[in-house]
Amino acid sequence: MLNRNSTSVNLPVKLLVTIIFITLVSVVSKRYGFHREPHLVAHSSVQQPILLETRVPLIHVETRVPFLMYDNAVIVVAIINGKPTKCQIDTGAQQIMWNAERNLTDQRTGSEMLVGDAGGHKVRLQEAILDNVQIGGLKLSHVRSYVIPSGHENPNTVPALGNSVFADTVLTIDYARQELIIQPSAPNTVPPSVLDRRHVLNFRWINPTVRGEYGVPCVRGKIMSSPCDTIIDTGWLSSSVSITKSFYQQLLPQLKASRIREHKADGKFFLGRAGTTIISRVSSSYAGITSISSASVVTILSPPAQAILGYGFLRTRRITIDYPNKKVWFEGTSKN
Fold first, then answer.
1. Closest Cα to residue 191, out of 212, 175, 174?
2. What pLDDT, on the 0 to 100 scale, is given for residue 18?
3. Cα 101 from Cα 268, distance rounded (Å)
4. Where do the domains of the chain lie, and which CATH numbers do they carry?
5. How far apart are CA 97 and CA 92, in angstroms?
6. How confident is the model at residue 194 (pLDDT cuts 50, 70, 90)?
7. pLDDT at 241 over 60
8. What is the three-state SS of the chain?
9. N or C: which end of the chain has fewer CB within 10 A?
10. Four-residue CA torsion sign, 58, 60, 63, 69
11. Mean pLDDT throughout 156-167?
12. Please, are residues 308 and 153 in contact by the beta-carbon 8 Å criterion?
């Protein structure tokens, strides 16, 4: 009798101890990082959204987002703080940037960043926190952004989704199909969205944010026969390659030897600034792809960047940026 009664009493006690132990393990794990909060939510057109709890997500999970071209800009609809918002995909921006007139949030952190605007003037941006941002199946929370003060841009300019949004993913921009493909990255693996593996370059961050987390991707290429550090900027809407004044001076002997013509732009070219020097028929080469285009001489680039590849170069490409592995693939127009 004693043994039977002892067993019946101990069972609830053991069950209670087990429950307490499991609860403590769960709390400690979350507190000290043994468990990671869902880092990325992604889905394909067939699967339901999948929570990815590590920084090396499943390589086959992807999300596809259609976009429109408007005034040479890649425009998508994102969900910011629960509201559908037209945004521009801008690899020339470190983080999300938006005009103060849009009033996306009032959560300012007090941190600031000094940047140069298109006119060469310094602008002080305020950091603000967005509760949530979603583009397709990619969902982010507690997202840092920067607010552009009133009067520095057209108040109707849409927010720019910069590199911080895609920093843990692979981003493919297919200009011909007008489609974004966002995938998790994997080490030492060519992303499935890459159709032609030959044209690949490593990139490095330049012009990082005040926290040093993100910057602008910069690759090494050639303009004429001179090597140059070049920014990949989907938000650069000029129809030509753009180079710095100092790099232009470096190219002058080659330009003269090749009898390449140049002229001054009228007020309708390049952000409405008359007098910009335009060079016709300049060759540029990146990852084994050579193209001929005009080039504009600009004054707003920060060292060490010497050139910008924007819409004029990218519009006939399918570009894939693997942010974690710091690689970029340039492909010809997609035919699939």
1. 174
2. 58
3. 27
4. 41-184 (2.40.70.10), 200-331 (2.40.70.10)
5. 11
6. very high
7. yes
8. CHHHHHHHHHHHHHHHHHHHHHHHHHHHHHHHCCCCCCCEEECCCCCCCEEECCCCCCCCCCEEEECEEECCEEEEEEEECCEEEEEEECCCCCCEEEEHHHCCCCCEEEEEEEEECCCCCEEEEEEEEEEEEEECCEEEEEEEEEEECCCCCCCCCCCEECHHHHCCEEEEEECCCCEEEEEECCCCCCCCCCCCCCCEEECEEECCCCCCCCCEEEEEEEECCEEEEEEECCCCCCCCEEEEHHHHHHHHHHHHHCCCCEEECCCCCCCCCCCCEEEEEEEEEECCEEEEEEEEEECCCCCCCCEEECHHHHCCCEEEEECCCCEEEEECCCCC
9. N
10. positive
11. 93
12. no
For residue 322, how far is the Cα from the chain centroid? 10
Q: Let me know if 227 is exposed, middle or buried by CB neighbors in 10 A (0-12, 13-18, 19+).
A: exposed
Answer with the residue of higher pLDDT: 108 or 114: 108
Q: What is the pLDDT of residue 23?
A: 54
Quick: pLDDT tens for 264-300: 765 444 443 445 788 888 899 999 888 888 888 887 7
* Mean pLDDT (whole number) for 200-214: 85
**Greater model confidence, 25 or 180:** 180
Tell me the C-alpha distance between 47 and 31, whole Å: 31
Q: Residue range 214-237: average pLDDT?
A: 93
Tokens of 94: 């470190």
Q: How far apart are CA 310 and CA 314, in angstroms?
A: 6
* Residue length of the chain: 336
Supply the pTM of this predicted model.
0.78
> Distance (Å, rounded) from C-alpha 317 to C-alpha 299?
26
Read off the tokens for 247: 């790099």
